[in-house]
Amino acid sequence: MIEVRAPATSANLGSGFDVFGVALDKPADIVRLTKAERTSISVNGAGAEYIPEDPKKNTAGEVLRSLGVTARVEMDKGVRPSSGLGSSAASAAGVAVAANELYDLGLSDDELIHAAAQGEKVVSGEAHKDNVAPCIAGGFTVSDERTTAFDADFHVVVALPDIVISTRDARGALPSSVSIQQRSETVANASHVVAGVLKDDVEMVGAGMYDDVVEEARAPLIEGYDEARDAALDAGATGVTISGAGPALLAVCEREDKPDVAEAFVEGFWNAGVESRAFQARVGDGCQVVKRGR
């Protein structure tokens, strides 16, 4: 038996659509794998009632199939589905890492990320790496055909409004094309995010997260977005963006501003008639094996 802790993640960071991602130090899934002749899946925890246990419809089942192994999978979900915090990615990445250990497959991080991305097809229809990459590698990641991971140490606040948005709906809201000017601005902003991470400059990271393409298209799906974002910025956040497909919002800030930003997020949503909760976190490690047994 192998037990793995698979962290929540935040993809895109505004300007890095489908490319950037960060691992968060909380919340996390716990995934347990035991060798078995056929794959079975059981799910408990946050939103378990919405997660199919049929291996053909679950990210974990697709990951195991892509690796050519079978196992009994037990998941304790700490990352709520359809939250924008990489719930399906945590399941997929956790299973990939656990299977690699359980069957001594000897896979590299890049190979594990590729396998986990296959599981994401079940949810979004495409093998996206922007959540599974940081979930496996930790820190801040840049992913296309390959993944580059960077150590990162900055503080964030996450707001979770009581709204549900599916990944498919969020992708359906995206524009089919952008102007040359928008493309140039997005590249510039994304470059500032990377530079900010490398320089440990939270102001630069926050400013670089600004995006007027994907963010602008998805914001109307999140009631209270404008009020919550503006409140967080007024409270000291250096940047605010939609986390992944939403509805979670991610704010980057200095450590001492985290309590004020968290309170402002909740108040902003409340003023728009939306209940929410906020939690303070930081960029964290990727999947970790926490227990081995028979």
From TrEMBL:
Gene Ontology molecular functions: ATP binding; homoserine kinase activity
Q: What does this protein do?
A: Catalyzes the ATP-dependent phosphorylation of L-homoserine to L-homoserine phosphate.
Q: What EC number(s) does its UniProt record assign? A: 2.7.1.39
Name it: Homoserine kinase
- List, for all copies, the residue spans of the domain called GHMP kinase N-terminal: 61-139
Q: Which reaction does it catalyse?
A: L-homoserine + ATP = O-phospho-L-homoserine + ADP + H(+)
User: What is the organism lineage in this UniProt record?
Assistant: Archaea, Methanobacteriati, Methanobacteriota, Stenosarchaea group, Halobacteria
> What species was this sequence derived from?
Halorutilus salinus
Question: Pathway it acts in?
Answer: Amino-acid biosynthesis; L-threonine biosynthesis; L-threonine from L-aspartate: step 4/5
